[in-house]
Amino acid sequence: MIQIAEFLPCNPTPLWQLARQAGVDYVVGELPFDDPLNGTDAPWDYLPLLRMQQRYTSGGFKLAVIEARPPLNNTKRGRPGRDAEIATVCTLLENMGKLGIPVWCYEWMTDFNWLRTDTSTPARGGSMVTSYNHALMGQAPPTAHGPISEAALWDNLQYFLHKVLPVAEKAGVKLAMHPDDPPLSPIRGVGRIMRSVENVQRLLDLAPSPANGITLCQGNFTLMTNDLPRIIRRFGQQGKIFFVHFRDVRGTPEQFEETWHDEGQTDMLACMRAYRDICFDGVLRPDHVPTVAGDSNDNAGYSAFGRLYAIGYIRGLREAVYANYSREEL
Ligand SMILES: [Mn+2]
Fold first, then answer.
1. What is the pLDDT of residues 79-111, one digit of tens each?
2. Phi/psi at 43 (5° precision)
3. Which domains does the chain have, with CATH numbers?
4. Which residue from 127, 131, 140, 283 has the least number of CB within 10 angstroms?
């Protein structure tokens, strides 16, 4: 059965308590970059990861996913230094395996990660969401590293997977590729390949392995299709959905805004039914939420009170869809 998780910093904050109080049992973790005891260890080494896992456990959570990456830009660009970067990923995967952390969420966005042109777009009742308008990007300069083609990104991804997947398989850890956000290419001269259903299928076909799969981030996938539940079934029937980001948007890849979970363009109830029907048994997290009255927009998309609403909404959907399950199982 699907389980609900929250993305929480790797040291305790009041948000940890809010998540527990809202009924969240699983955590999506970061990497322990700021552990004062790291010494000469890196955040992907065994002891820093162990201590992070222990902190989450003490907070009442089971660590289900790590959604943070060692530096990988040389790897994505195919530059010297990539083999050292890939070695850090292998170390991370081996240690996750030892600690029983089953999923690593990564992505193939080069130079910059998720991108918005506005982080305070007015939404329901004066709340704020993030938005993207490609028309505003016409004057945006290329990135410092210069253009890179989609063909090069595919080649470099194949090189990476060839090295990493055998290690992941041996460790018992699954790689869950997050789509590009927004799903457009190029942006600022940088090609973006994880931007269509066909390309995501190409990723899966590129390296057949039980460890090669995806993060079904609904906010991106719903911009690639007009029938997201069908896409969930398509990838789910292949056994390739390892992790879910449950959120919604309104618009097109070129111009969209994020929305409250209950007012976007996607049939969220039908999506939840699709996860049930494919027997998805991993975790889902709310992903981005609106910033609501009384909360800070400093970390747009991740405000605390907005998350509470999202968790409640998701728990309600889950209870409706998994009606044959007992409350204890939920
Ligand atoms: Mn996402």
1. 999 999 999 999 999 999 999 999 999 999 999
2. -60, -20
3. 3-321 (3.20.20.150)
4. 140
